[in-house]
Amino acid sequence: MELTRIWLTLLALTAATTALAFVPGPAAAAALLAVAFLKARAILGGFLHLGRGSGWRAAFTVPLAIWLALVWGLHVI
Fold first, then answer.
1. Cα distance between residue 23 and residue 8, in whole Å
2. How many angstroms separate the CA atoms of 9 and 54, rounded?
3. Cα–Cα distance, 45 to 57 (Å, whole number)
4. pLDDT the model gives residue 52
5. What mean pLDDT, rounded, does the chain reach?
6. How far apart are CA 8 and CA 71, in angstroms?
7. Could you give the CA distance from residue 42 to residue 49 in angstroms, rounded to a whole number?
8. 34-71 pLDDT tens trace
9. What global pTM score does this model have?
10. Membrane spanning segments where (predicted)?
């Protein structure tokens, strides 16, 4: 049942990505990157089961958050 919940979450986040794709501006870009971050966390925690190991999810999501912040910063420039 947990995988079904994660799959439905990914479907909802994909719908949000599609809806945000037509909105211009840096705020929409930040929202798109936030949705991408949430998708990555859902995949890492749900399908790859990194949430069960101590520190593994943080080891992947902290660099991901830094990378997405850098991408957003480049978009704003």
1. 24
2. 23
3. 7
4. 79
5. 89
6. 27
7. 10
8. 999 999 999 988 888 887 777 887 888 899 889 988 99
9. 0.82
10. 58-75
Q: How far apart are CA 29 and CA 72, in angstroms?
A: 7
Say which residue the tokens 């990555």 belong to.
40
Residue pair 72/33 in contact (Cβ under 8 Å)? The answer is yes
Q: Choose among 21, 63, 73, 74: nearest CA to 41.
A: 63
Q: Can you give the length of the chain in residues?
A: 77
CA atoms within 13 A on the CB side of 18: 6
Report the candidate in 10, 12, 9, 14 with the shortest Cα–Cα distance to residue 32. 14
**Could you give the C-alpha distances from 36 to 27, 40, 67, in angstroms and in order?**
14, 6, 12
